[in-house]
Amino acid sequence: MPRKISLDELNRLSVEDFKTVDKYPYILILDNVRSLNNVGSVFRTADAFRAEKIYLCGITGTPPHRDITKTALGATESVAWEHVQDVVALIDGLQQEGWIIAAIEQAEGSVSLQDFRPDANKKLAFVFGNEVTGVNDHVIEKADLILEIPQYGTKHSLNIAVTAGIVCWDFLTKLNKNLTH
User: Once rounded to an integer, what is the mean pLDDT over residues 7-24?
Assistant: First the structure.
């Protein structure tokens, strides 16, 4: 019978090593995310999938806060982050630096995540919006790409932390496949 692998056997990076190790070429932008538990969960996902950075925009809460810390499980110490009030100004600056802006939203002209093929030579910034209103319309207009996760049930959306996990996993799976072929 299989046994669970102990934490010591997992051989994870230390916080200090994580800060210096190469990251994957993507960042996460949380714009006006209300739930501090969602913010903490996204930190944990960013750590697990080695994101370069998280930008916390608008009303999105920032560490240190007990609700973020509770779900982040230490990832606020390992993942680089910055608070930026104006998400549109941030996106303008990132685009000038060559980042591809991908809004995660249900919108006209969106690309199904299953059809998305990242370019290994391009850096991506994934934008996640408010839990109720989604990604800001101004961000949608400025985005280079709009990605949508196909859904087949009765609900019209997924929790932002779940969405971030799906998007990060999908991106890294495809990126690593492209790098090995």
Answer: 87
